[in-house]
């Protein structure tokens, strides 16, 4: 066991670009995790995660998760469960949004011969 990162060092008040600020990359892991930052007003477009449940932990700022059932306001410290099969989008609020996503590790790409070839 060891500390991987201090999110406080990754989430600060200075302007930062949108995208992943940290990704879990430990060999042999069973989980994937990413610290994502969205500047104010930036958005992750509507998408559906068909295979995996995702836990989203808001570490700084706030925003909104939009779903077909409506919108859920996000604030620092919130933990949100996004069940597999759910459709959502995420929009950062006026102070931006930094959040950690955690889910089961995806299986690697496997190249196989097609039947009959």
UniProtKB/TrEMBL annotation:
SUPFAM superfamilies linked to this entry: RmlC-like cupins
Protein's name in the database: Mannose-6-phosphate isomerase-like protein (Cupin superfamily)
Organism: Kribbella antiqua
Database matches in Gene3D superfamilies: Jelly Rolls
């Amino acid at each position: 066991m060891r500390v991987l990162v201090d999110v406080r060092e990754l989430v600060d008040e200075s302007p930062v670009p949108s995208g992943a600020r940290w990704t879990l990359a430990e060999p042999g892991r069973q989980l994937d995790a990413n610290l994502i930052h969205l500047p104010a007003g930036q958005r992750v477009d509507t998408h559906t995660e068909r295979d995996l449940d995702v836990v989203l932990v808001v570490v700084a700022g706030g925003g909104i998760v939009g779903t077909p059932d409506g919108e859920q306001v996000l604030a620092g410290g919130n933990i949100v469960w996004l069940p597999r099969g759910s459709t959502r989008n995420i929009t950062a609020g006026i102070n931006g949004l930094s959040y950690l996503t955690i889910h089961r590790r995806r299986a690697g790409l496997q190249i196989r011969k097609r039947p009959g070839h």
